[in-house]
Amino acid sequence: MSAAELTPLLWWLIPVLALTGLGAGLLAGLLGVGGGIVIVPVLYQIFGFLGIDPQVQMHLAVGTSLATIVATSIRSVVAHNRKQAFDAALFWQWSPAMCVGALAGAWLANLSDFATLTMIFAVLATLIAAHLGIGNHHCQLRNKVPGGPIAALIPATIGGLSAMIGIGGGSFSVATLSLFGVPIHRAVGTSAGYGMVIAVPGTIGFVVGGWNAAGLPQWSTGYVNWLAFVLIVPMTLLAVPIGARLAHRLSQTLLRKVFAIFLAIGAARMFWDALVL
């Protein structure tokens, strides 16, 4: 698509992606889930509407989402640290294994075709929606986070799965940290930092993996589209601190259920595309 063809579309692309960034930022601050869980489904639909080759559509949505999470994560950590909800020791405990997992996840995603990657996202999004909507958020396995080489498999798995589907890992890490007795606000604040640990190697992996891919739109470097990045990130950065403040005031239960419904609808559409296209 040429620049001349794209110009009329910017009149609706700008507000749609700005609202996407706003929603992603609010959720990143509120629930520590990372904006990617909102951004990927929206970008997936937009790229499809623009007629982008289905073989790169999902990869482009995931790679672009990871790029936006780099900025979102840094902003979110600053906001939560002001509330003394960021645990630096816990962050560094899990970060190395999570980074390795993210590199592995990006590599596996680049090897996957459209249907496989779309199905993976749909399945994991459905599980996250079920956990947020009906899961027991007070369940606890033990009263501290395990350590040691074997325990490193936990953050590595979170990093791998998150990078594969373009999210910051908060959807998995908040739930996991809660199971190990970490208070919810500290789990949310610390998980915000994991987004950067996952997104940086993940973005690099999607740029390299898509470097010579056919069918990419203009303003793309590998599987990262910088036009979408520029339109999403400013509103995301604006909304993150608002979400972080609201996290300490609003009902987490209601927010989880509303978000679960949104996520389930997006996952259902992706199931359909993966099975039909």
Task: Characterise the protein shown here.
The protein is mainly alpha-helical and 277 residues long. The chain has one domain (19-276). The protein is 76% helix and 1% strand.
SSE layout:
Elements: H1 3-6, H2 10-31, H3 36-49, H4 54-82, H5 88-111, H6 114-134, H7 153-165, H8 170-179, H9 184-209, E1 220-221, E2 224-225, H10 226-247, H11 252-276
Antiparallel strand pairs: 1-2
Helix pairs in contact: 2-3, 2-10, 3-4, 4-9, 4-10, 5-7, 5-9, 6-11, 7-9, 8-9
What is the number of helical segments per DSSP (H or I, 4+ residues)?
A: 11
Average pLDDT value?
A: 82
Count of domains = 1
Instruction: Give me the count of strands.
Output: 2
**Multimeric state:** single chain
Rounded to an integer in angstroms, the radius of gyration calculated over CA atoms is 17 Å
What general form does the structure show?
globular
Q: What strand line-up does the widest sheet have? A: 1-2
User: What is the terminal-to-terminal distance?
Assistant: 22 Å
Residue share in β-strands = under 5%
| H and E string | HHHHHHHHHEEHH
The share of residues in helices is over 70%
Largest sheet at a glance?
2 strands, antiparallel
List low-pLDDT spans: none
What structural category characterises the helix and strand content? mainly alpha
